[in-house]
Amino acid sequence: MQLIRLACCLSLAACIAGEDGDPTSGEENRGDRPGDEEGPEPAESCFEAWADPVVAVVVGERPDPAEFPALRFWVDYSVSADYIAQVTLEAIDGLQPVLDSQGPFSPETHSGSWAELRDADDQVLYTRGASQLIPEIVEAPGDPGTGSFSNAFSCPDDGTLLLQNFPNDPRAASLVLFQEPIDGAATASASELVRFALP
To answer: Are 42 and 168 contacting, i.e. CB atoms less than 8 angstroms apart?
Structure first.
């Protein structure tokens, strides 16, 4: 399987998490499945919470494509004390320029992480690869006195993901994030993590 390498202009920065909300009504949802009207059930661990995160969109509108041909998406993520994971599309800024699409990618043919813009018919319009989107691997000190570092698994808590220089395409109806499961283990396959309905 082809390993997707780190792409330019996708960056991670520490930030506070956004609020719960449904992509269309502003109400809390968990995967938009029937039976969730009473709110999500807490998980038993941080990693278990990421198997079914709450998804929210709190953006009213996107910038005018005639003025801003590119977009930057601000995505907040967090895990509450009672193990409810939530991912919120917090803001959309206008930028210039647009970077070239790197796709299409597929969970059947690619590993790693990527973000897609899709139209109302769920067709992929644009793809950007990344090493991690919501990170579960951190750099940790190695043996004392060696000055070495190694990768270690750590369940994501609070942070912000910035997706920059995506095209401001009026056809784009959703932003979809793919990555390996956030489960504290190294796996080879990616899957859809969250999907945001775009304004």
So the answer is: no
Amino acid occupying residue 139: E
More confident: 185 or 83: 83
Residue 7 structural domain: 2-197
Number of CB atoms found within 10 A of residue 186's CB: 10
Res 149: pLDDT: 64
What's the 3-state SS for 20-52?
A: CCCCCCCCCCCCCCCCCCCCCCCCCCHHHHCCC
Strand order in the sheet with 191-197: 124-130, 113-118, 174-179, 191-197
pLDDT tens digits, 68-103: 999 999 999 999 999 999 999 999 999 999 999 998
Number of neighbours of residue 32 by Cβ within 10 angstroms: 12
Tokens of 29: 């949802």
User: Which of the 8 DSSP states describes residue 173?
Assistant: -
SS3 content of the chain, % helix, strand, coil (to 5): 0, 40, 60
Q: Hey, what amino acid is at 3?
A: L
The string of pLDDT tens digits covering residues 95-110 is: 999 999 998 899 888 8
pLDDT at residue number 67: 96
Measured CA angle at 41 (ends 37, 46), to 5 deg:
140
Q: Cβ neighbours of residue 14 under 8 Å, at least 6 residues apart?
A: 158, 159, 160
Secondary structure (3-state) at 159: strand
Structurally, the chain folds into a number of domains equal to 1
